[in-house]
Fold:
Amino acid sequence: MKNFFLIVFVSFYLNSLSQNIEIYEKPPVFVGCENEAIDNLKICFNTKLNHYIFQNFKVSQEAIQDGYRGDVKVLFEVDKEGNISVVHVDAIYDALKDETKRVFQSLPKVQPGTYNGKPTFYQYSLTIKIPLVDPEFMRNKVSEEQEHIKEFEDLNKIVSNEFDSITKNIVTYKGLEYSSQLNIPFTHQYYSRFDANMNGLGTNSHTAAKPFVYEDVAQYYDFKAEKETLKKGSDGWWSRKIWDEHLVQIQGEDYWFSIDPVFDLQVGKDTDADFNTTFNNTRGVYIQGGLGKKFSFSTSVFESQGRFAQYYNQYAESLKAFGPDPAIVPGRGIGKRFKDDAYDYPVAEAYLSYAPAKFINFQFGHGKNFIGDGYRSLFQSDVAAPQTFLKLNTKFWKIKYTNTWMWLRDVRDAVVEDKAFLTKYMANHYLSWNVSKRLNIGLFESVMWTDTNGRGFDINYHY
Structure:
């Protein structure tokens, strides 16, 4: 083919019409294949024939002008004398048929195939794809594909062992929650353990916005040492899980998580009430974990039934929600009737914590927040039920800035519409500045609005 760029592909498939090729059957031998082993004769025949066709086949001008891409199907035979002749050829252009016959007529005579040492006929089918490609290129391509298959097989081997490799990556649990961006569960009793450390002279801590995250407090208080003092040093699995470890604790190269059951059983007595005993029965599960060094999560689900002191019951029922729900348990939420004089109040809390940099932390979830250094707060207290929130903590120099946006429910009977609580929104902004070792100034702004005018949530919070 003169002055023409050809993409040439010859796919040669040898298909012997003999039913079974035994060891005493020898295929035809193409010129140049005489020294090949008998097992390689077919491959050599294929290679030589492909190369000959590539060197001598001339694509018709008609096919070139039409940009034709297709096949030429050839059925040929090698007779007892080693002559190669076309039995049948099929192509869309007559010129391609004629060219195929011409090329095959010009093929050199080969050694005929034999059966039990006697010459015999062999028939083969051949597909020539147009445009053509150098068979040497195709051979290299096949080699690359075979290498790719090998790499793919190696990959399959790796993937097949993936589960076992993950198990091997699990390391001894090291209590990473104590240095994470997770919240320290907020109770005044527990926080009193490290309040003195946080407020020590010379520290640059900010104590008004709660709950704190472990990473901020860890520099003032050793949680791991505290945990060690509580351990019983038990050898048995059950005693270790009860006293010394999480029920489930797993740590890998870039993740960790733990699961713990929660039980809170209380019994008391109220001498001024019609009933004799008070009780609280809580069962739950507490899950926390981390992915990498910047992302943490926590969730807790509690199912509780309780009957409290009479003054507390009366206060809870004074906050009565609409419908059959008898009370709103302070700090927990709506309580359903349990038996005749007790309440059933489930609670679910969860949040995601993300710290893209050391000085900033985002949290989104359902829970409670507190602002203030007292036991109670008129600004934002833990006496409220858990609510959906988005919180941003930014800390730099001697300043900490806390932004909290909340989605709340107004549970008063007076504002119930269509048996549904009205939604209200709240935005809090609190700036804490450590002016000196003995002086802290806190500045805050708070806006609350309802959804009665269809305004909905507005991150700009302006009036």
